[in-house]
Design goal:
This protein has 352 residues and is mostly helical. It contains eleven helices and no strands.
Length: 352
């Protein structure tokens, strides 16, 4: 959540020394452990949520896990806690960008505050689920939650273009200003996408919810470690990108609509086309991953269930890469409008 590019060495300044032995790597492992433990708590406590009545499933666009008869307090707690969480993190990101600015191998005080805020609201969401149950899903479409995460992943593809390329290591031609704006403001968008999705779902213990909440916890952890070296560690960033492969595949399997290969091979396709080229893998390792992808896809799509559905291999990559172009154009349009607005302001000031 910084303006620094991903392919440059983070600048270490006066505030760069770790506070005691509390380096960002120790915090990272502690945060991962916290995420695992709290996911286990959600799983263990999930059975009691069966007491909350839900409406019958009404199809793919229907989100099942919401109250049949929501109350004023269920709305108030879901939206109130969400807004408090959202505004708190936006405020901390703004403070870090405008007051701290310097990378560190330890933690800034603002990182400690961010970790505490996220941990507090994780606990509050658990309590809120078990007392009032409903999340934001009661009031907004499921596609808003899915769409926010999709745009976040597309935004990452855009920001990482200069470091690893977009198509087999080849870079998409982008202006420096578009990349600068994408990096400068990505923290605010990512914080919205993650926190909005976090409060969209009640803390149910289905396999899809458990993987989803574990993934969200890791993203909240990453969002707390801005201006630390671990925040721009390429392997840690890659792990957060690739977990969506497991999440999307598991949710599709649970839904039982035989669409899981589209999600598995779709996100695996993005890995072999784009993501693995940022990991400094040897040529033979890249070849091995590509061969495994081709063999796996051949085995699955020669089965009777999926014969004639080869379009699924291209669906997710095509959508994502097209979305990268659209996002770049939108950012470029925003820059153009901002420049024109500033130009008019300067002209008005000169005339006055």
């Amino acid at each position: 959540m910084t303006t620094t590019t991903y392919n440059e060495r983070p600048r270490i300044g006066r505030e760069s020394k770790p506070q005691g032995k509390l380096t960002n790597k120790w915090i990272l492992w502690g945060g991962i452990l916290f995420s695992l433990v709290f996911t286990g708590i959600i799983w263990a406590a999930g059975a009691r949520l069966e007491a909350f009545p839900k409406l019958p499933d009404q199809g793919p666009s229907w989100y099942y896990w919401k109250l049949a008869e929501p109350s004023a307090i269920s709305h108030l707690t879901a939206w109130g806690f969400y807004l408090a969480h959202q505004l708190s993190m936006w405020g901390l990101i703004w403070y870090a960008q405008t007051r701290v600015k310097t990378y560190t191998t330890g933690l800034h005080k603002v990182n400690v505050l961010a970790l505490g805020v996220n941990a507090l609201f994780i606990v509050l969401h658990f309590v809120q689920t078990h007392i009032w149950y409903d999340g934001l899903a009661q009031d907004v479409s499921i596609y808003t939650s899915q769409g926010s995460v999709i745009v976040m992943l597309v935004w990452i593809l855009l920001m990482e273009n200069n470091r690893r390329g977009l198509i087999f290591g080849k870079k998409m031609p982008l202006s420096k200003r578009i990349l600068h704006v994408a990096r400068k403001y990505h923290g605010y968008f990512f914080a919205w996408a993650i926190i909005y999705t976090f409060w969209y779902h009640p803390m149910e213990n289905t396999n899809g919810h458990l993987v989803g909440f574990f993934y969200t916890f890791l993203l909240l952890l990453q969002g707390s470690l801005f201006l630390t070296r671990i925040h721009v560690n390429k392997f840690w960033m890659f792990i957060q990108e690739v977990i969506v492969l497991a999440h999307g595949t598991i949710v599709a399997i649970v839904q039982g609509n035989n669409m899981w290969p589209m999600f598995f091979f779709g996100f695996a396709g993005i890995f072999v086309i784009t993501q693995m080229h940022g990991l400094r893998l040897s040529r033979w390792m890249k070849g091995a991953f590509l061969a495994a992808y081709i063999i796996g896809a051949t085995v699955i799509y020669t089965q009777p269930t999926w014969q004639g559905k080869l379009w699924q291999l291209a669906a997710i990559p095509m959508i994502d890469y097209l979305a990268v172009v659209v996002l770049a154009l939108l950012i470029g349009a925003g820059i153009w409008v901002a420049d024109r607005f500033r130009g008019k302001q300067v002209a008005a000031e000169a005339a006055a």
